[in-house]
Structures are given as structure tokens and as C-alpha cells.
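User: Fold this, then the next.

Assistant: Folding the first:
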Amino acid sequence: MENSAVFSEEAADEIEKNHVFHVYEQISDHFSETRHSPWPNVKEFIDSFPAGALLVDVGCGNGKYLNCSKSLFSIGSDRSSKLLQVCRSRGGHQVVNADCRVSPFRDGIADAVISIAVIHHLATEERRLLALQDISRLLSKGGRALVYVWAKEQKIGTKKSTYLLQKKNEVSRTEEAYPSTILPVHENRTEFKHADVLVPWKLKSKTSGSKELDPGINPSAFLRFYHVFKEGELDSLCSSIPNISICRSYYDEAHVILEVDIQFLA
């Protein structure tokens, strides 16, 4: 198993700026089009809370989970201003622009917190831990959080994940296509060879011609930073946070995404 890359704070800032924040601002419309159906396990988690509970979605993206339950009060935060525009336009959701490590909400405000496919975009273990600590800070006593991250292992036994089974995008060999990148570029729909990688996102042709794309940016492929979690890694981070109990840790079999359901005990 390859060890994670080690980045300085300055390098981590640059990686996240160039390969997370700027990328999602450019692909927001296309990304939102591909994120329309709530994942069943996440919806089940949301539906487990009583009417009137407050749900906070940290890294809410296009807001697809903010209207899963009409009986809950739901608010969200995201770093992407373009995705927040989508949130507001599609449902008038209550959302704010914020880094997932330092949310603007007060301590103990939430009965439920979800963070779905967010903290794997943070470039260091310290940053990922800060995001989890902030999630725990938001929870009221007895409150629960559900955290999803991409898993490095994309098989359960011999069963391949949906990610591996989907048709590959037409991408050149990564070593040839991106010779100057500072991190390995993952070949889509293949097993992960590295823990810290750049994952290509290819825009549809009609979106590639969008007037919103910044001049000089190649719209054919954007590289998103991912830290893919090995088995037990997310559990270990959560266990280091005081007053947190892991209710369960498991894989979403459809996506082979690691899920941790935690409860705040203090």
C-alpha cells in the first residue's frame, strides 16, 4: 500500500485552489447535471431523524440532499459559489459559502450533519482531521453525522464497484497526457494505485463551449485532487476526536465509498 504524499501547508493550499476550488467553479453546471438522485444510504440516514430536526450539509454541492426530507430544517455550506448559485436557483435552499474546515455555524446547532464526498478533497491529514473536528463541533448531544469518502479499494471481495464497471472515458495514457503534473493522474474507471491522485473530469461538448469558462483553460479535462482512503483510515481519524463514538463503519456496495456514522456524546 502506497503511503500518502506529504505536503506543506503552502503546497496544500495551491493543490486545493487549483485542483478543487477552481475546477468545481468551472464544471459546476455539468457536475450538477450528474448529481440528481440521492444515494439510498444517505437518504435513509436523513429519514431516521424526527420532524423538526436540524440537518447541516457540509459541502452541499448542488443541494440534492437539502430537500430529501420536508420535515427537517436543512442548511448547507460549500466553498463553490457557482454550486451555491445552483442550490439557490433550484430550491431556494439556505446555504452559505464556507470552507469545510471552518463552518460559520455555532456549536451544537445540529441534530444531524452529513458530509458526502467532501473531505477526500483535502490535501493533508491535518486538514481532513480539522474538517471532522468541525463536524463534531456542530453536533448537539446525541447528534449524529454521516461522512462519505472515496475508498482506495474498489472491490468488495470479487465484486467490482459501479465506478469500475462504468464505461471508461476516452483519456490518453496519463503519463503522456499530463507530463507536468505534481501528482499521479488516475486513469478513470481503474483501480487506484496511489492514495493521493488527480482524477480527470471531462466536460460534455456543449458545456465545453460555455461562456463561463475562463479564457486559456483547456475545457477537455479538469484534474480534481483526491485523497482516497484505505481501510480503517477514516475510522482512525474519527476515533482521535474526543466525545465521538463510531456507530458503524461500512462500504456503500454500489459505489465502494467508505461511510462512517458517528455520534456526539458530550
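Now the next one, as you asked:
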Amino acid sequence: MAAGRDVSGGLEPVAVALWPPGESPAPFQYSPDCVPGADGAIDPTEVTFQGCPCRVRSCTSPSCPCVRLGQRGRVPHCAAPLLECNAMCRCGDGCQNRVVQRGLQVRLQVFKTAKKGWGVRALEAVAEGSFVCEYAGEVLGFAEARRRSRAQAAQDPNYIIAVREHLHDGRLMETFVDPTYIGNVGRFLNHSCEPNLVMVPVRVDSMVPRLALFAAADISAGEELCYDYSGRFRNLPPTEGEQKAAEEGSVLRKPCFCGSQTCAAFLPWDGSLFPAADTHLQSSP
């Protein structure tokens, strides 16, 4: 990929620029949407939700069950899940409750940073609450996510993200997305301890969420886009088990170069994919 060329290869509604000239990221397969992982455990493309009966151009609350359940607001003040109208809904394609599924609408650029490898910046101003991009990749089952995590060397970049949602009935739903080999522009987003993006699970056709990133504040053209890898930004505090896992894995954590006043010095690290015994072995000299 040459500078100025579309990183997405024409697969996004808006081209993704590349900078600087003469350099490009390591090869990967671009996909604007999540795809089934190599383990075949989960199919994020399967349509399992029933559609709303709204025969209108654009659904409104409280008449539409999708809008009512999703509680969509323009500005996501927290990481609470949202529900969009889907392929089975009878509303029009222009429905206001269809946002993430329309894909990338903001002009972005993948660029080489001074200390953090590749990053992403906005090429236009983005208003607070606007959808920016999705974090798309292979959707894996726990076993494959754990296998891939344990196979990584300490210097390897880790793209695997684990999203955990506590359901109303007490169950824990886990979603693992890995854009290492197949992914979109979201794979280049860096972490910040004071991010300008917030990740929100958005469901469209099934219970498998799309990991959507919204502007947490007004963003200026040229500003780097970052989110909190730990998922704690505008979210509930970590549970005791999650906090313990992070502490146990401190030896494996990488330095953070976000430069914020509240920088934690290290990137967030999820120890749940590493059994305690394995963590101990990896921390040995």
C-alpha cells in the first residue's frame, strides 16, 4: 500500500488514507465487518433477531422495540449496549436507528507515530457522539482466543480484544475479536488513558455484538483517535477477579506512551486468557 492509497482497498464507503510515503503496515486481509474465526465457533454474520414491525421510514421510541431496547441516544455517555434495526425489520434503510451497520462515514488516516507504531487520526472534525469506526476482525471462541494469546511472543503486538457483558440474569457474555490477520482500520487504533473514543457493543442481527467506537468528545481534524483498551472508560469498575488478573500479569505488560496526565505507565493487560501457572512460567527469567 502506497501513501495516499486506500488502506481498505475500496471496501469502505469512505477511503482510508495512509501516511507517510514509502511505508506501509504489515500485510493483512481487510474486512469492514467481523467474520467467523478460523475455529468456526461463532458466526457473527448469522441473522437470529426478529425484525421490528414498524412500516415507517424511520423508527422512533417507544413504538419501536429495537429503539426501546437499545435506548439509542446521540451521545453514548457510557458503554451500555445498543440495538439497531436489522435485516428483518420493516423500516426503511434510512432509519435513524441504523448507524453502525452503514459502515465508515468519517475520513480517517492510518499514520506512523513516533513511539506507538501505526495509529489512526481524523482527517475531518468529528462531533461528540458520532460513530467513528468499528473494531472488526475474526470472532473467536474462548479456546482459540486463549491459544492465540499464549502463542504470542512478548514483543508481538496484541490485537485480541475481550469484551465481557454482565447480563440481567447473572450470566456473563464474552466476545473475543482478533483483527491480526483479518480486520479493519480499527486494528490500528492506539490506547490512551484519557481517550477520545468510547467502545460500545452494538447488536444488529444477532447476539454477537459489533464493537463500535464513538467520539467521546469533539475531535479536531488531525487529532489522533484512541480508546481505552481496558474498557473501563465510561464503564463499571473492574471486578475483583479482573483486577487480580491485571496485577498478576504486570510483568508481561507493555509501556504506555499515550502522554496523558493520568497515564498509568503500562498498557492494560487481560490476564484471563493466561492461567496463573502459565503466567508464572512466562515471568520467570
